Amino acid sequence: MGGTVVEPAKHRLPANRHSLYAISGWLDEEVAELAIGKLGIFSFRRGLYVYVGSARRNLRARIGRHLRTEKTMRWHFDYLRPHLRIVGVDTFPGDEGECRLFRRLMEACGGTVPVRGFGSSDCGCEAHLFYVPRAADPIPAGVLAGGTGFPVYPIPQE
Length: 158
Known about the structure:
The chain is α+β, with helices and mostly antiparallel strands. The chain has helices at about 60-65, 75-80, 100-110, and strands at about 20-25, 30-35, 40-45, 45-55, 85-95, 130, 150-155. The strands form two sheets. The chain has a five-stranded antiparallel sheet. Strands 2-3 form a two-stranded antiparallel ribbon. The protein starts with 18 loop residues before the first strand and ends in a 5-residue tail after the last strand.
């Protein structure tokens, strides 16, 4: 379900600076019961999901890991990732902070929180994953960036 993922061009992703990222993935079919680590078992509706994260060092490695489907499960996103068709990756400078970026993007996209605590174990946020309920198609690459931050890296589809 995850499709082929091609790592973004290495020269375009900042490797060693505090940066933020938003990974957009389309869930083609509902997932009735999915265990998300110690968080619990949840259902996920068909549609667009956006996961916001940060990397204090080596953004390229963090995003590359998140895009792979075969790996040791470490983060909440690792459990959902095999079910998603990745449609884009947006990167941002780290100054805004992961929590503020999450809220800004979720509001801009009209998103809702599908699972409380998803991706936010280390902060007080409701979550760092949002669902876009009215998305008939994936949000085109670049919409999330809103003209700020680093360039957008669309992921080629099979």
